[in-house]
Amino acid sequence: MIGFWENLFERLSKNTLPGKFVTSIGAFVRSYFSSVPYVLGYIGRIFQSTFAFINTEKAARKILIMQLLFTFIEALPIVVFLSVALGSAIFLVGYDLLLSLGQASMIYQILIVVVVRELGPVLVAFVVTARSSTAIATELGGMVTSHQVESYISVGVDPVDYLVAPRFLGVTLSVFFLCLYFSLCGILGPYIAAMFVNPTIAAGYFSELLKNCSVLMILTSILKSIVFGMIISITATYYGFNVERSSTEIPVAGIQAVSKSFVGIIIADVIIILIPMLM
Fold it and tell me: Whole-angstrom Cα distance, residue 96 to residue 103?
């Protein structure tokens, strides 16, 4: 009986258009998910190397410092400008609109939700992805094509320990600190703007913010920043090492790192938002 159904499915897949379509979909799914075990093993290897990073050589720590300098320090002015502009615009425009509806006190809750919990971590992750994901992927891809990675392996240096772990840790810490600065500046910016526009609003600004702020919002923002940083660093290093021989693959790896990081950030953001709703 089983052989009958197998033969029937084989005849359908060969002789009919729907059967060929189903066969092509199955082949695509198999090829797409064939690398999942390797990716999971790569992620596990990164976590293992990161936990042992304290005992690594000083050269790897220099890579961590340089990654923090590029990803955190150099991106700080952009993040501060975005947070101040976004927070001030939301507060000033939203306050007048809600005041006309008799719900002016809701602007503080909206400000906390948008700046601290929702839009802040996503914007920071997008900025870091645009700046650092391409740089990491192209740098590692260039090291692969120039056989530097093979040289590390030949002298007994693990590329994941020396090249990936400091970048993983540096990007994750950078996203966390940038989200922290984004939240602080996004809250202080509206206060400074309100002092010039309407000083009466600024009088009870911080007390109203504290009433509408909760521990869950802060923990959600922290979780998002850490998860987004992990996604960016893992994706960038993975596609950087995927470069094989030709130097023309390097820009392709950079594009894939950015696009896949964006997709991963959006999916992770949706999952983190849905978790409290399902509990």
Answer: 10
Within the chain, residue ranges assigned H as helices are 2-15, 17-33, 36-51, 58-68, 76-100, 106-111, 119-128, 134-145, 148-154, 159, 165-197, 199-203, 205-212, 215-241, 249-278
| Local structure of 102: helix, strand or coil | coil
The answer to whether 239 touches 199, Cβ cutoff 8 Å, is no
* Cα–Cα dist 180/175, whole Å: 9
Rounded Cα distance between 181 and 56, Å, is 30
Name the 3-class secondary structure at 198: coil
Cα gap 181→67, rounded to integer Å: 18
- Please report, in tens digits, the pLDDT of each residue of the chain (279 residues total): 444 444 544 554 555 555 555 555 655 555 555 667 777 888 888 888 888 776 665 667 888 888 899 999 999 999 999 999 998 888 888 887 877 777 877 888 888 888 888 888 999 999 999 989 989 999 999 888 888 888 888 888 888 888 898 999 999 999 999 999 999 998 888 888 888 877 777 777 888 888 888 888 889 999 999 999 999 999 999 998 888 777 788 888 889 999 999 999 999 999 998 887 776
